[in-house]
Amino acid sequence: MFSQELSQLIARTQRSDEAAAKELVERLYPTVIRIVRNHLPRRELEEDLSQEIFLKIFSKIHQYRADTPFEHWVSRISLNTCIDHLRKQRNRPEYRWSDFSEEQQAVLKTLRDGESEPPGDAPGESRELLARLLLTLKPNERMVVQWLYLDEKSVAEICDLTGWKPSKIKVMAFRARQKLAATIKRLAR
Q1: For the chain, how many structural domains are there in total?
Q2: pLDDT category, 174, cuts 50, 70, 90?
Q3: Which tens digits make up the pLDDT trace of 49-62?
Q4: CA dist 48 to 28, 32, 43, 99, 142, Å?
Q5: Domain limits at 138?
């Protein structure tokens, strides 16, 4: 990419020239998609994330100063967006139906349909599924669900452990159950 040509293209884009913006996307796409592919484990998100990166580039293009190469500026935005996405995924992952085994999908269908007994699956599959679903909750919600339903502690015991009031624990447990149910319904769609 010629430096003068690129400078003119950037200037035209800063003046809201749509043709220049389109040409800029075409030229930058290989760089952006390469960065996204190198930093994300899931291929299905790469187009969405590259679109998000281009939105950031165009919303901040007025802030670009020619003291650094434009490709470096674009690479920095791309890399930061990927890192932010990975942090978000690490803190509270979002699963898709295909992320689960066939046995786990059968359990999810059973839960979605409100049946009480899951199909004859291995207990390990259900345990792994539950652990993955709990990761979608906030840490405090996950802790309350763990103690209340899995460790079978009473609300009074959890109050002693946390110092929280019973109403807070009950509301948190209720909201966590609702979130888990919504996650199961979303996955099974």
Answers
A1: 2
A2: very high
A3: 889 999 999 999 98
A4: 16, 12, 10, 18, 29
A5: 98-188
